[in-house]
Design a protein that fits this description.
Elements lengths: L3 E2 L4 E2 L36 H18 L8 H14 L5 H10 L6 E2 L2 E2 L5 H15 L1 H6 L6 H8 L14 H34 L15 H35 L4
Antiparallel strand pairs: 1-2, 3-4
Helix pairs in contact: 1-2, 1-3, 2-7, 2-8, 7-8
């Protein structure tokens, strides 16, 4: 997203998202904190709060909406994640932390106060109940292939209008948001995979650092090794779903010929 000269360790062009961050230099990198933050394409970094969002909401949400129980399509899953990240205050660490502690990733309120739920599933079920009760047509579209215009009409139709201030651009905005969020989610997934891989490699070493076989592990360490292997397989599956959602968004937002 920016021209970088590695010889002098400087950007030769400004951040294309500089207008979103007026308090930062347009030449800044990773919010001036390259240890805590990762800058994927010269855009926003991935902060610790964002990692918390992905671990506590992003990955479970992708699992939930693509499950047989819910059955969203790749594009439907992208919309759900983009909407969740937007309502959870992605980009504002204090907001994200509040929504995580409340298990409320859609900012649902009662009497102008954000509702707290006891678990991720409880928060998700409340969002699902709201969607099926008020926007059943839109919710059903998320299970198949749909166009931006079709979902926009379904979500802003009748008594309830989800976000009329966007004047017919809400769905496009949420999908564009989803694409950025999903790309950063890939980074967090890869970080999780790398950490698990290192832990598994360390389990297969003795106290002197020499390799040992799985058969020589204690019962507890063998169970941990198998748990790591299972979680790595799970993360591979989530990564494939995230990549499919990114591709679906790019297709849906591609200019019409």
């Amino acid at each position: 997203m920016r021209i970088y000269d590695a010889r002098i360790a400087r950007f030769l062009s400004v951040d294309p998202l500089r207008m979103k961050f007026p308090s930062w230099s347009p030449y800044a990198f990773a919010f001036d904190n390259p240890i805590l933050n990762i800058d994927l394409e010269g855009l926003e970094g991935v902060s610790n709060a964002h990692r918390l969002y992905f671990i506590n909401a992003g990955i479970p949400l992708m699992d939930k909406v693509t499950s047989a129980e819910v059955g969203f399509s790749a594009l439907g899953a992208a919309f759900a994640l983009g909407q969740s990240a937007w309502e959870a205050g992605y980009g504002n660490e204090a907001d994200i932390k509040r929504k995580i502690s409340a298990n409320n990733y859609w900012g649902m309120k009662f009497k102008n106060k954000v509702i707290s739920f006891g678990s991720f599933d409880a928060g998700f079920n409340a969002w699902k109940l709201m969607m099926t009760g008020r926007f059943s047509g839109a919710y059903n579209l998320l299970k198949g292939n749909f166009t931006v215009d079709q979902l926009e009409q379904a979500i802003n139709y009748g008594t309830y209008s989800y976000d009329p201030l966007t004047k017919g651009k809400y769905v496009k905005h949420m999908l564009g948001n989803a694409k950025n969020v999903l790309k950063r989610m890939l980074i967090v997934i890869d970080e999780q995979k790398l950490e698990l891989t290192k832990k598994s490699e360390n389990l297969l070493k003795d106290s002197n650092g020499k390799p040992i076989s799985i058969d020589n592990l204690s019962k507890e360490k063998k169970a941990q090794y198998e748990a790591n292997k299972k979680e790595l397989e799970h993360l591979d599956g989530v990564r494939a779903k995230v990549s499919a959602s990114i591709a679906a968004v790019e297709t849906a937002l591609a200019p019409k010929k």
